[in-house]
Design goal:
The protein is α/β, with parallel strands linked by helices. It is built from seven helices and 17 strands.
Length: 431
């Protein structure tokens, strides 16, 4: 019995040592290039660098909250134990679904922040298809003593804390970043950043967990005011090189310059990024565990920044849809990884436990006037159902609520299912 106990203790110690070896107060930054077409993919290691400080999570290092469209994993070479794992989505994978990807090969930057290991480790990165299968991967070794891991001595950009609930070790650090604001417009940016933070915290469950967040506004100066609009022949010199017309879609505003963005943020603790563009044109985007980008001058700024943060922070799916189903992302033989939509392939893993007794699957939608009349004074939980139309598709994909922040800008809040999904992410990072 004593030998079994000692053996168990030794294994537990090795596991704990492996996990702790990746929890040093130093960050390993790994830059990759994802390239290919709609049918081919190459993942290439571009550069590794490191800097002092680790603002990432210190709990649940060996697991992920949701699957994502890809994962990066770091394992100790000697023990094989997982030191760190993170899930993500990428603009490259989204581009692969476009018509352009059928006729040209393109490359996209991707940047990941990992805790610096104290001994040799293996990093693996995987991309998943619509069915959750691995369709591209790369493995490579990280040796902390490698002389070609570039040591960065960060100089913090101009910044101002809007909310500081604790240290980076204790809290989730969100950087709200200026794009298209000149140095003379810094105060305008700080006001917009305050508005963005207040909008996020005004939505549950963020408000109830506000003491687990730090929000810092980073006033990156741009040479030009505004952002680029290629469709109008307008190109600006801005801090992050963002532009509308991503994938030739008028309202899709993104930046492809991820290395440049992370270079400029180095020196300010951050885990999640919200970029505010200095324009009144409607648009933006949110990419899970990459960034949110939205326009600060439009009248729908507040609901949009919250919606996009739902994507980038919590991995929530869009719940709106198009009658023509111009893009098919979800298939009946697989269950989406996003927690707020379902194909009913594995509905038990979603919000089946939240359905009121007697609710049919699928659920017959109510007309808007009936919905408003019935919902007055009743708890939101009473109206959780399985309503067809979500994930851009009018058929075969279902959402949990008639209206929600992930469905329309007019919705007043996240639905109960989205609220639970967000709470789970927050607790994953902090408990």
């Amino acid at each position: 019995m004593r030998e079994i106990f000692l053996r168990y203790t030794a294994v537990a110690f090795l596991m704990l040592s492996a996990l702790m070896s990746a929890a040093q107060d130093k960050t390993l930054r790994v830059d990759y290039i994802f390239s290919g077409t709609d049918r081919s993919v190459d993942i290439s290691l571009d550069e590794m660098s490191c800097f002092d400080g680790w603002a990432g999570r210190r709990t649940n290092l060996d697991s992920v909250a949701v699957r994502g469209n890809g994962q990066i994993c770091m394992k100790d070479v000697q023990t094989g134990e997982i030191l760190y794992r993170q899930s993500f989505s990428s603009l490259f994978q989204e581009w692969q679904t476009t018509e352009e990807a059928t006729r040209v090969r393109k490359a996209f930057e991707n940047v990941f922040l990992l805790p610096m290991p104290s001994a040799k480790a293996v990093v693996s990165i995987e991309l998943y298809d619509f069915w959750g299968s691995v369709y591209a991967s790369l493995n490579h070794e990280v040796d902390p003593s490698d002389i070609l891991i570039r040591q960065i001595d960060p100089t913090a950009a101009p910044h101002r804390y809007l909310l500081k609930s604790g240290t980076p070790q204790e809290c989730i650090d969100v950087a709200i970043v200026a794009e298209g604001y000149t140095a003379a417009e810094a105060e305008d940016f700080y006001k917009a950043a305050q508005t963005a933070m207040e909008a996020i915290l005004a939505h549950e469950p963020f408000g109830s967990y506000r003491d687990r967040f730090n929000f810092v506004a980073v006033a990156l100066p741009s040479e030009d005011s505004g952002v680029s609009v290629p469709g109008e022949g307008e190109w600006k010199k801005t801090a992050l090189g963002s532009h509308f017309n991503t994938f030739y879609m008028d309202r899709y505003l993104t930046t492809l310059r991820l290395r440049q963005m992370h270079d400029k943020l180095c020196g300010v603790p951050y885990e999640h990024i919200v970029i505010l563009a200095n324009t009144d044109t409607y648009g933006g985007g949110g990419i899970y565990n990459s960034y949110t980008l939205t326009t600060a001058g439009h009248r729908a700024f507040k609901p949009v920044v919250v919606h996009e943060f739902g994507h980038s922070f919590a991995g929530l799916a869009d719940e709106y849809y198009y009658d023509d189903q111009f893009v098919e992302y979800y298939y009946p033989e697989s269950e989406p990884w996003e927690q707020n939509i379902t194909t009913l392939h594995d509905f038990d893993s979603k919000w089946k436990d939240m359905l009121p007794e007697g609710v049919s699957i699928p659920t017959e939608p109510m007309k808007s006037n009936v919905w408003e009349e019935c919902s007055a004074g009743k708890p939101m939980e009473d109206f959780v159902g399985v309503y067809e139309g979500a994930g851009y598709q009018s058929k075969g994909v279902y959402r949990p609520f008639m209206d929600c922040r992930m469905h329309t800008n007019g919705a007043g809040s996240f639905c109960p299912v989205c609220r639970r999904a967000i709470a789970r992410i927050i607790e994953f990072y902090t408990e």
